[in-house]
Design goal:
This protein is mainly alpha-helical and 203 residues long. It has helices spanning 3-28, 31-37, 45-51, 56-59, 67-70, 91-114, 167-173, 175-178, 184-193, 198-202; strands at residues 134-142, 145-153, 161-165.
C-alpha cells in the first residue's frame, strides 16, 4: 500500500460522498422504486432468528446486530460508525440499510486512512498453518452478514474438520416462507433484496 494507493483512496472517498445524495434523489426517492419495494416481502426479526439470517436482512428487520459491534475485532472498536437499522422489514428497508451502509463505509475508510501506521503492514506467516489440536471459531461482518469459520484441528497440516458459515445460505433459506402467496414480480423483488451470491451458497 504505497502513497499512490492511499491518495487514490482518499480521492475516492471525497468523490463518493456527494454522490450518495445524488443516488438518494435519483433512486431512493423515486416514486416508482418506492411503490415497487414498500410493504413488499416483509421479514420479521423473529423469522430472521429462526433461519439465522444476518447482515442487512436482519438490520432491515429492526435488529442492530453487526459482528463489528457485538464481537469487536481488528481496529473496529477504535472507529466511530453507526449500525444502520430500519424496522419496516420490507424490501425498501433492506435497500435503505445498504444505502446507509455505503455512507458508514466511507466513514470507516476515512478513519482507517487517518490511523494507518507507517512501515510494512503485511505479517510474515508460514506457508503452512498448523493449528494445535482443538476447536477454533471466528466470525467477521461480511457485506451480506455474518461470515464465520470453524476449524477442528488434530495437530496435522490439514484440518480434521472445517465449516464455512456464509451469510447467503442462511439468508436464502427464509425465502420459501417469506414468499408464500406472493405474485411472481414481488417474489423477484424479495429475492433481489436478499442480495444472494450463488457461489457463497455452495460453500
Amino acid at each position: 500500500m504505497d502513497a499512490a494507493f492511499l491518495n487514490g483512496t482518499r480521492e475516492f472517498v471525497t468523490y463518493m460522498q456527494p454522490r450518495l445524495d445524488l443516488y438518494r434523489k435519483l433512486v431512493t426517492d423515486n416514486i416508482i422504486l418506492r411503490k415497487r419495494l414498500e410493504d413488499i416481502g416483509p421479514i420479521s426479526a423473529e423469522m430472521c432468528r429462526r433461519y439465522g439470517a444476518s447482515g442487512p436482512v436482519l438490520r432491515g428487520a429492526g435488529v442492530a446486530c453487526d459482528v463489528r459491534r457485538t464481537e469487536p475485532y481488528s481496529i473496529y472498536p477504535s472507529l466511530d460508525f453507526a449500525v444502520p437499522v430500519f424496522s419496516e422489514g420490507d424490501c425498501l428497508a433492506r435497500y435503505r440499510v445498504r444505502m446507509e451502509e455505503m455512507a458508514q463505509s466511507l466513514r470507516i475508510i476515512d478513519q482507517a486512512l487517518a490511523q494507518m501506521p507507517e512501515g510494512p503492514i503485511q505479517a510474515k506467516v508460514p506457508r503452512v498453518l498448523k493449528l494445535p489440536p482443538g476447536e477454533y471459531y471466528f466470525a467477521v461482518e461480511a457485506a451480506r452478514g455474518r461470515f464465520a469459520i470453524r476449524v477442528v484441528s488434530d495437530g496435522k497440516d490439514i484440518p480434521y474438520r472445517m465449516k464455512l458459515r456464509t451469510p447467503s445460505f442462511a439468508n436464502l433459506t427464509l425465502f420459501e416462507e417469506a414468499s408464500q402467496g406472493m405474485m411472481l414480480p414481488d417474489a423477484l423483488a424479495l429475492l433481489g433484496s436478499l442480495d444472494l451470491v450463488i457461489p457463497d451458497i455452495d460453500r
